[in-house]
Design brief:
With 504 residues, this protein is an all-alpha fold. It has a single domain, classed as Sodium/glucose cotransporter (Up-down Bundle). The protein is 73% helix and 2% strand. The longest helix has 38 residues. It starts with 6 loop residues before the first helix and ends in a 17-residue tail after the last helix.
């Protein structure tokens, strides 16, 4: 194994990994002890004291939203399918108006009553334990494979360094688990500064120097088009007519689902104010520009005439082929650190859900704030170990399939989380029924299609391919509307304004 290791790249990689590890442990004392400090409290560990300003929130949400798997998977999809892989661009453009309109209201609902999770907000709004449980279990189940996929991204770059076996991956995740246990949300928030700066450097250097090495962008696009033409099918530099509807619905459905995940909502709830969230909705599209540049790396892999055994190897193979070892090590470190930030926030989001919406209502209703923090810390370790086992003992395809299902599932929480912010017509029984229909129906369609993201709907003899999650959401909303209209006030449990639920 030693002869295969790129020692220069590994040394650079190790330096930056050690740097962020030190920062992770040091973060436990970062921004603590201020006027609003609550000591041993879930707010402090799980939400960073709810005191993150515009810049910290920008780096945290961006670092959490644009993950290591994004840097690996988006170019891999572009490499494999061409223009269709660029659906992530309109998706990340659509998501920020949604954030601007919805998330400040959700932040207010959480801030007034001390809510830590979306399921807390739902319980505070509808006073329904079954609906709260449904939202919480969906969040946890959707998050687990997402964490595992961060490991996939890290695993790809570790192998590109020449390291084999599972020990390096396990060691990296043990370190992540320890400093997250110690510092909570402050650790990924602080590390996100380094991660984002490194990713920007890597991508900007790549999109300038790689085309120069390959004869310009014209040569890159020409090589990619030749490769797609040889492959045939629906691949190409432009969308085929039959791809436009699935492309559009996949982008819209993904945008609606993105900020329903526990990890993205954790960044929202940790913000200092609703105005902080609005500012971030304005500034975060800068990451969309970065994502577009990252996607181009998939086309550059064709320009470099790389021969790949796995599409996920496109970015690491490109850097190993065209850059000196020290810069490859820097790039791989950026991608690996890009796995640590979202994985940490995801585990924190899942542990917050378990603590507030499982442990507190059903196991220990009288738990103290310090007890909540202790439970959440322990659960965060369990979640990471579970994700590690997930990736070590199950095929990578299984993780990808589960994450695709997770996207369908988390989208079904949208009505329960969002509708109550804008009106009081819906009641818990109708929303719970809609959630169940969307979850079961969406899962059934996805599994019947072989875990594909789109489903073919035949109308008038014409087939239309539509994102499965969006079809399930439509069924969810229809059932909720019809059932609420039928039940009327009979379906109304006592509504409890969010401001009346005791915090903590």
């Amino acid at each position: 194994m030693g002869s295969q290791i790129n020692w220069t790249a590994f040394a650079v990689f190790l330096f930056f990994f050690v740097l962020v590890t030190v920062m992770g442990f040091a973060a436990s004392r970062w921004q603590r002890g201020g006027p609003g400090h609550k000591g041993d409290h879930l707010d402090e560990w799980g939400l960073g004291g709810r005191n993150f300003g515009t810049w910290i929130t920008w780096f945290l949400v961006g670092g959490d939203f644009y993950t290591a798997y994004t840097v690996i998977a988006v170019p891999a999809l572009v490499y494999a399918s061409g223009a269709y892989g660029f659906f992530a661009l309109p998706y990340t453009i659509l998501v920020y108006p949604i954030v601007f309109v919805i998330m400040p209201k959700l932040w207010h609902a959480a801030h007034r009553a001390g809510h830590v999770t979306a399921a807390d907000v739902v319980y505070g709004r509808y006073n329904s334990r079954p609906l709260e449980f449904a939202i919480a279990i969906t969040g946890v189940l959707a998050t687990m494979p997402y964490i595992a996929l961060q490991l996939v991204g890290m695993e790809v770059v570790i192998k590109a360094l020449g390291l084999s076996g599972e020990l390096p991956l396990a060691a990296a995740f043990v370190i992540l688990a320890l400093y997250t246990y110690s510092a909570g949300l402050r650790a990924p928030a602080l590390i996100a500064f380094v991660k984002d700066l490194m990713i920007y450097i890597v991508v900007l250097v790549a999109v300038v120097l790689v085309p120069i090495k390959l004869g310009g962008y014209g040569a890159v696009f020409s090589s990619a088009q030749e490769a797609f033409a040889a492959k045939g099918g629906a691949t190409g530099l432009t969308l085929k007519p039959e791809q436009m509807l699935p492309f559009a619905t996949l982008a819209l459905g993904s945008a609606l689902a993105a900020f329903m995940y526990p990890h993205t909502l954790t960044g929202i709830f940790a913000a200092r104010s609703a105005d902080t969230i609005r500012k971030n909705a304005v500034f975060l599209p800068a990451y969309t520009v970065l994502l577009g540049l990252i996607a181009l790396l998939g086309l550059m892999a064709h320009g470099a005439k790389l021969t790949l055994k796995n599409n996920n190897d496109a970015v690491p193979a490109l850097f190993n082929a065209l850059f000196p070892s020290w810069f490859s090590g820097f790039a791989f470190a950026a991608i690996a650190i890009g796995a640590l930030v979202p994985a940490a926030v995801m585990s924190i989001g899942a542990s917050n859900l378990f603590t507030r919406n499982f442990w507190k209502p059903y196991v220990n209703p009288d738990i103290t704030p310090a007890g909540e923090q202790k439970v959440a810390k322990i659960v965060s370790l369990v979640v990471k170990v579970g994700a590690l086992i997930f990736i070590l003992f199950l095929p990578t395809k299984f993780s990808i399939d589960m994450q695709l299902l997770g996207g369908v599932w988390i989208l079904q929480t949208f009505p329960s989380v969002v509708f109550g912010l804008f009106g009081r017509w819906f009641r818990a029984p109708a929303l719970l029924a809609g959630w169940a229909v969307g979850l079961v129906g969406g899962s059934w369609l996805a599994i019947a299609d072989g875990i594909k993201p789109v489903h073919a709907v035949v109308l008038g003899g014409t087939s239309y391919s539509i994102y499965t999650g969006l079809l399930a959401l439509a069924a969810n909303v229809v059932v909720a509307v019809v059932l609420q209209a039928v039940l009327g006030e009979r379906g109304a449990g006592k509504l409890e304004p969010v401001s009346k639920r005791a915090p903590g």
